[in-house]
Amino acid sequence: MMLLAILLPFLSFILRGKIITGIICLILQITLIGWLPAAIWAALSLNNARADKRNDKLIQAMKDNRK
Prior knowledge:
This protein is an all-alpha fold. It has one domain. It has 4 helices and no strands. The chain is elongated. It is found in: Membrane. InterPro entries: PMP3. It comes from Chryseobacterium soli. Its main location: membrane.
């Protein structure tokens, strides 16, 4: 998925269900200069989504451990 975020950033957003963000990223990606920021944006967004999932799992495990 990270390779997809770098090569086709707009598709990475669309596959994760962020349609509007994917369209904005596609518009940015169309320009040659905008492709690099779009790829960085998609990669950072993917890393943040993965971190959020990990944090949610940790929080849920801590809640379950208290019971």
